[in-house]
């Protein structure tokens, strides 16, 4: 018999509507799994069991009366960077341990209106700054494929929870790869939407254009469904994209192709090359796409190395401007202080120049790439790394260097604003997941999801389970 946690969110919603099970039963089942497995994985900072059970009881009443929304009674989890009214939101920081937001993020309102029930707040590095998840609150998030290795960041807790079937899907956010990195490390599907696709309101900011929310799921259809829930602008958004004219749930039923797909595996950074596992995953995905009738074209990496220092000015300026009280500074992790100091050293002129450089460079690159429909690279240069690997030296600059060795590809699409996804198509000889990344043209989230669904149908991954929680 199929266990409740083996169903994806769409199947769970269907079973609830047909009354094959109750929301209380479904929520209790997942809370039991969280109690059993989340501590070893470092998946959750806060578990909201009491609130979830209250909402499940209300969901059952709504379902019985036929008044439920599309996902009424289905469990989800929210990243601990994302504001949740009345629920602690630490942002992975001891300095914010007691912070309780007075409002929801707009994306949380949309998720709740769709009927989802959050089971808690997932683990994240301090202020989401790193490509691995660790903090001084509960420690690292670990991939369920090997708990000696980090789940990736910054949505590491969310990815670990989805991979371990603690929730069927989760909300994540991505400013430099923070959805796609942990999706690769945890063997699930992660989708970063186009810039402006998901609102940062009401109190969040999209001033740099780098970050946005998106889904972490086991199936492409769940990701499309959750993006349909999330993809609605809020009045006052700086870069709003309108509601999609065709639902993403419809896009994944459309046949994709034949497409012209550009690929490269070299990085834009001198001295940083992909490891053999990343190349093997990329080559295998290329053959799969060719077998589906797509044209694969080898091109050099089109992004210049000069983007890296400009990205760092913007990235560090963001955290330097965070309203952290001076008395809390000593509680910050060395990596956070490193980035704040770099940001404070940058002038307003340098920040303006960096943002203009990114805009003009990306405009030219995207113009040059118009002949292609999609883009294929590794997601990461390395497989999941041991939990202490990034910061074992104690030197934040070395920490940064190792992050570049690990993830030299993902942040480029945050700079360009393109939609991008990590697909779990490969596992190495040690049984560790190694993702590949497909990206589309800006604003073309639907066609990219259509391509991802076609790949998933040709090489299904959803039934592959980590031994820890199977």
Describe the structure.
The chain has 470 residues and is an alpha/beta fold. The two termini are 14 Å apart. The model has no long low-confidence stretch (mean pLDDT 97). Helix 5 packs parallel to helix 6 and helix 10 packs across helix 11. Helix content is 37%, strand content 13%. The chain has a single domain, classed as Amidase signature (AS) domain (Amidase signature (AS) enzymes, Alpha-Beta Complex), CATH 3.90.1300. It is globular and about 60 Å long. The strands form 2 sheets. Strands 4-6-5-10-11-9-7-8 form an 8-stranded mixed β-sheet, with helices on both faces. A 3-stranded mixed β-sheet has the order 1-3-2, with helices on both faces. 56% of the residues are buried. The longest helix has 21 residues.
Indicate the CATH topology: Amidase signature (AS) enzymes
Described by the principal axes of the CA atoms, the overall outline is globular
**Treating each run of at least 4 consecutive H or I residues as one helix, how many helices?**
15
* CATH class descriptor name: Alpha Beta
Q: In terms of per-residue confidence, which ranges show pLDDT below 50 for 5 or more consecutive residues?
A: none
Strand order of the largest sheet: 4-6-5-10-11-9-7-8
């Amino acid at each position: 018999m199929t266990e409740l946690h083996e169903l994806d969110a769409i199947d769970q919603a269907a079973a609830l509507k047909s009354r094959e099970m109750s929301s209380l039963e479904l929520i209790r089942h997942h809370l039991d799994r969280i109690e059993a497995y989340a501590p070893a994985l470092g998946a959750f900072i806060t578990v909201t069991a009491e609130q979830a059970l209250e909402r499940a009881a209300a969901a059952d009443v709504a379902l019985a009366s036929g008044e439920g929304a599309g996902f009424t009674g289905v469990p989800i989890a929210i990243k601990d960077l994302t504001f949740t009214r009345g629920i602690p939101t630490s942002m992975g920081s001891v300095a914010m341990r007691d912070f309780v937001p007075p409002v929801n993020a707009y994306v949380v309102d949309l998720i709740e209106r769709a009927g989802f029930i959050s089971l808690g707040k997932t683990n994240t590095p301090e202020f989401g700054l790193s490509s691995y998840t660790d903090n001084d609150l509960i420690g690292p998030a670990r991939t369920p494929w090997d708990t000696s290795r980090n789940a990736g960041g910054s949505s590491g807790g969310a990815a670990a929870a989805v991979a371990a079937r603690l929730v069927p899907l989760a909300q994540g956010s991505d400013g430099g790869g923070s959805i796609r990195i942990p999706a690769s490390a945890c063997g699930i599907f992660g989708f970063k939407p186009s810039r402006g696709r998901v609102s940062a309101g009401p109190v969040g900011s999209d001033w740099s254009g780098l970050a946005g929310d998106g889904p972490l799921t086991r199936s492409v259809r769940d990701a499309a469904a959750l993006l349909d829930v999330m993809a609605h602008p809020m009045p006052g958004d700086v870069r709003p994209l309108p509601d999609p004219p065709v639902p993403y749930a419809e896009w994944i039923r459309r046949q994709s192709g034949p497409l012209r797909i550009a690929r490269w595996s070299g990085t834009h950074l001198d001295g940083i090359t992909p490891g053999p596992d990343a190349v093997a995953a990329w080559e295998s995905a290329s053959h799969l796409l060719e077998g589906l009738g797509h044209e694969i074209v080898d091109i050099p990496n089109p992004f210049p190395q000069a983007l890296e220092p400009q990205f760092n000015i913007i990235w560090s300026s963001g955290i330097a401007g965070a309203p952290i009280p001076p008395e809390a500074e000593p509680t910050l992790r060395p990596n956070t202080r490193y980035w704040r100091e770099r940001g404070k050293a940058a002038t307003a002129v340098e920040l303006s120049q960096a943002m203009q450089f990114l805009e003009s460079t990306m405009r030219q690159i995207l113009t040059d790439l118009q002949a292609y429909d999609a883009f294929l690279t590794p997601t990461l240069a390395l497989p999941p790394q041991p939990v202490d690997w990034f910061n074992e030296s104690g030197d934040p600059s070395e920490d940064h260097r190792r992050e570049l060795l690990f993830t030299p590809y993902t942040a480029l699409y945050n700079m360009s604003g393109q939609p991008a996804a990590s697909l779990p198509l490969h596992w190495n000889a040690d049984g560790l997941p190694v993702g590949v990344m497909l990206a589309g043209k800006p604003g073309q989230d639907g066609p990219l999801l259509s391509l991802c669904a076609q790949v998933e149908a040709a090489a299904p991954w959803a039934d592959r389970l980590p031994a820890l929680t199977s």
